[in-house]
C-alpha cells in the first residue's frame, strides 16, 4: 500500500508499505481525505513538534475521513462495509478519577500521526488503516467525505 512518510526534517516520501494487519477488535478502512494540520507541517519543516521529535519514520495525518472496508458492530448496531466515516484520532491515556470528564488530558494519551512516544503513533496518510470501533464516527448522508475530514479541526475549535 502507498503511504506518505516523514523521516525527519524536510524529508518526506511516498513509500510502499505492507498493508496493515488489524489487531483483535480492529477494523480496516480506506482513508479518502486527510487534513494537513499544523503539527504535520512542523514535523516536516522542523522534524519535531515541541518535544515530540521524529525518531523513526512517521505517517502523518489525524484529520481523516474514508470508507469502511468491512462491517462492524458497535453497541449492537451493525455498520456495513462501504459506510462513510471519520475517525476520532485519540486513544485516551491513564484514567484519572479527578479528571473523569476530561479524558483528553489524561497522562499517556496518544494521537494518530504523533511522534510523542516510541514507537510513534502512525497516522492516516495511507491507503488502508486499522482502527478501533470506538474511533468510528459515521458521516451523515448529506455531508461529503471531503467536508467530513474537517470534523476533527472543527471539534477542536468548538472545544476551545
How are the secondary structure elements laid out?
Layout (H helix, E strand, L loop, with lengths): L1 E7 L2 E6 L10 E9 L2 H9 L1 E2 L2 E2 L9 E6 L3 E3 L2 E3 L4 E4 L2 E2 L18 E2 L17 E3 L4 E3 L6 H4 L2 H9 L1
Antiparallel strand pairs: 1-2, 3-6, 3-12, 4-5, 6-9, 7-8, 9-13, 10-11
Structure write-up:
This protein is α+β, with helices and mostly antiparallel strands. The protein has a domain at 21-35 and 61-151: Quinone Oxidoreductase, Chain A, domain 1 (Alpha-Beta Complex), CATH 3.90.180. 14% of the residues lie in helices and 32% in strands. It is built from three helices and 13 strands. It has helices spanning 38-46, 145-148, 151-159, and strands at 2-8, 11-16, 27-35, 48-49, 52-53, 63-68, 72-74, 77-79, 84-87, 90-91, 110-111, 129-131, 136-138. The strands form five sheets. Strands 12-3-6-9-13 form a five-stranded antiparallel β-sheet. Strands 1-2 form a two-stranded antiparallel ribbon. Strand 4 and strand 5 (52-53) form a beta hairpin. It is globular, with a radius of gyration of 16 Å.
Amino acid at each position: 500500500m502507498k503511504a506518505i512518510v516523514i523521516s525527519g526534517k524536510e524529508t518526506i516520501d511516498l513509500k510502499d508499505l505492507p498493508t496493515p494487519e488489524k489487531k483483535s477488535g480492529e477494523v480496516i478502512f480506506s482513508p479518502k481525505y486527510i487534513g494537513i494540520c499544523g503539527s504535520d507541517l512542523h514535523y516536516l519543516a522542523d522534524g519535531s513538534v515541541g518535544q515530540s521529535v521524529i525518531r523513526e519514520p512517521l505517517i502523518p495525518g489525524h484529520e481523516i475521513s474514508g470508507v469502511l472496508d468491512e462491517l462492524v458492530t458497535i453497541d449492537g448496531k451493525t455498520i456495513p462495509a462501504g459506510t462513510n466515516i471519520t475517525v476520532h484520532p485519540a486513544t485516551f491515556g491513564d484514567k484519572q478519577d479527578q479528571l473523569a470528564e476530561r479524558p483528553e488530558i489524561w497522562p499517556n494519551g496518544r494521537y494518530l500521526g504523533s511522534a510523542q512516544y516510541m514507537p510513534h503513533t502512525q497516522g492516516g496518510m495511507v491507503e488502508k488503516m486499522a482502527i478501533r470501533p470506538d474511533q468510528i464516527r459515521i458521516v451523515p448522508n448529506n455531508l461529503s467525505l471531503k467536508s467530513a475530514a474537517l470534523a476533527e479541526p472543527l471539534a477542536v475549535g468548538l472545544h476551545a
